[in-house]
Design a protein that fits this description.
By secondary structure, this protein is of the alpha/beta class. The chain has 20 helices and 13 strands. The strands form two sheets. An eleven-stranded mixed beta sheet has the order 1-3-2-6-8-7-12-13-11-9-10, sandwiched between helices. Strands 4-5 form a two-stranded antiparallel ribbon. β4 and β5 form a beta hairpin. The radius of gyration is 23 Å and the shape is globular.
Length: 586
Amino acid sequence: MDPEEWKARATAKRASILAKIKPEWRLSPEDIAKASTQRDLTGPFIQQFLGADDISILSMDSLQLVEGIGKGSLTSLQVTTAFCRAAAVAHQIGNCLHEIFFDEALERAKQLDEYYKKHRMTLGPLHGLPVSLKDQFHVKGVDTTAGYVGYISGNMGIKDPSRAHQVESQIAMELRSLGAVLYCKTSVPQTLFYIETKNNIIGETLNPNNRNLSCGGSSGGEGALMALRGSTLGVGADIGGSVRIPAAFNGVFGIKPTPGRFSCRDAAITNAGQTAYPMTVGFFSTSVDGIGLMLKSILSTQPWIQDPAVVPMLFRQEIVDEYLARANADGTAKQGRTPLKLGILWTDRVVEPHPPITRGLKMVAHAIESAGHKVVDWAPPSHETAKKIHLSIITADGAEDVHKKLKLSGEPLISELETRGMRARPPMELLKFQDLASKGLEFEAHYSDYWNSTANDDGQIVDAVIMPVAPHAAVIPGKYYHIDYTEALNLLNYSVAVIPVTKADKNLDPYDYGHQPLNGKDEKNWKAYDPELYHGGPVGVQIVARKFEEEKVWAISKIIHAALERAKGSPSSTQGLSRGNISAHL
């Protein structure tokens, strides 16, 4: 196929995205050129292109927005307009959107305002709240390219051409039923199997906090949009770190549930027949409370009724209450209650974390201990073993599915994926696949045994574990050498939250010239650390619970976040837990 043909399609698609931005929201060529030389696009830089009313609305978190709409102090149209405008600017300076449907969103907002005016009540707990989606979920009337040129003007995963643009993913339908306003879909890497965000359609999405760095992947556009406050609540997906990495790299909150807790029905999935360790829907938010709002709202729709792959399990408020009862509003251990016992993985003993990550872990440990909770070291079975098993299983088809999709347009595999298991090769033999799956189950059992053993000394089992998301802050593009910190947890199918902690600081995180590499990969990662380039890169941590413990890990993440804010001396430290029970909004 003529390479100029796929390039022309990609060029036309880029132009069509920009064409959907209202003329009054378009930036001048001079402003766009200025953004291209700006290190930090967040805060004051993007705000210069927004109005005062927009900035006021965008500064609110998800709960504040739905509360304001529910009380009538805000309208859905006001809120939706602000987020559409912010997303429009974010894309022009940050290249983070694949699909724009602002006109439909504004019309939906007007309808929701009319509903509220007529009935004096909201349609649902997300009434009037704009929600962004990764370009892996179908929304009626728009493309789902999932980063493939071949799906421009179509929907990846929809085999019948007559159904193109007619199908909506179940998660999108659930959001609509809850009153949400869908307004854009965010950028992803080609194949959906990459830890940065780059494709042959729009190019690369960089990190708005520091454009020397990556926004992560594969839900990178979600993280980047949130860093620019173009969204406060979003939907992503995770099969190896694809929610957790962008959340941490962009300084926002995220959660990777256990597969089967939320619906993936009618989503675009690479190699959908691989169900041993499947993709899971995950969520992003600019606040810890936003994650809880999303969990409880979506589960209130009983997604298992429409999707038999979903476990029938409502949101368990009693678990949230049980854990929040063990701490005060500022995260300190409550007198007369059992303090939390939390493990910390300082290193996986394969690749040592860079100085900003170690400092971030120390900040969290200090915050937890000073709040009266217990911290213990975590030294589980090797995450490297887990990563090798998981990666072999999810790529067992020899990248056949990926290359079949590439052939639709004739586009090439992006160069970064050539060395990451995406080259075409013979598929794995069935008996080898079964052997690997068996080893995966063995690893899960060994890890569970280790977790249970934490009760041997004091009778109290570890409640959750804190560990790095990656061995670095938001990474220099092309220098992400070690994904084991996230991918091991996909083999375990654990529930994992991410909270922001700090940012890399060249003055606090100097290069350690005395570091003794553990191996060649550790040396390669360490040599990639540049305090100047990394300066300002967000640092987040994973908070890990076991299978189907989303309520527990969310509650514990609230406690840890509150304790961290208290330790930083933040005025907001007393707000951390006060809204643990969000049932009033549902």
